[in-house]
Amino acid sequence: MNRFEGQVAIVVGGARGIGKAIAERLFEEGADVTTFDLLENDFPKLQQGARSIKTLQVDITDEKGLNRAVKSVAEKEGRLDILVNSAAIVGPSSTKILDYSLADFKQVLDINLTGPFIVTKAVLPQMCSQQYGRILHLASIGGKEGNPGMVGYASSKSGLMGLIKGVGKEYADKGITVNGIAPAVIATPMNKDTAPAMLEYMTSKIPMGRLGTTDEVAALACWIVSKEASFNTGCIFDLSGGRATY
Q: DSSP 3-state helix, strand, coil percentages of the chain (rounded to 5)?
């Protein structure tokens, strides 16, 4: 399939896990892809002829640096059609609020909520000038239902869903869609930061009895950011193996 041929995409958090899988699938379907991440060694390294996935070391919480990086992509490629943001940290897990430090809470919100706010603002001017764009953020089923012992993560993802819904409505008449995916627990390197008891608890709530895969997330993500998904904005798509109950 070449449904993204001629389109330009930025994937934030594209060095590993969900972001890497989405970046690779977008590239394989024809998009010119640039990945942003703090990590260097794990960036995807796909190439087709003269095309290759480009990589930039960028901090999603650094507004000036992020604005420069987005501007450089838009100016070099002449357009910007797709933003996918999967940058996130888990923060403390199996930790009740009385033991959860304010510093940890602020760090999780900074990366998981303030970062998406910054990058959304950064890409909107170019998308508005084109009267077309697709913005997708990776939220979490934990933001809908709450996971005990992960108050920072759950709060950040709940806030992210509010950002998605609000901005989606603001730009609904501009040819720009803003959506989110709320996965249950997905098998990614980030799970190494989750306490085993917490991981077991989250998996036990999934009726399919297994973790999701990054390929499953990428399949849904690439439909959401395609031209086919033209009447969906401000929407949170569940990807939960049956865990979602509403």
A: 45, 20, 35
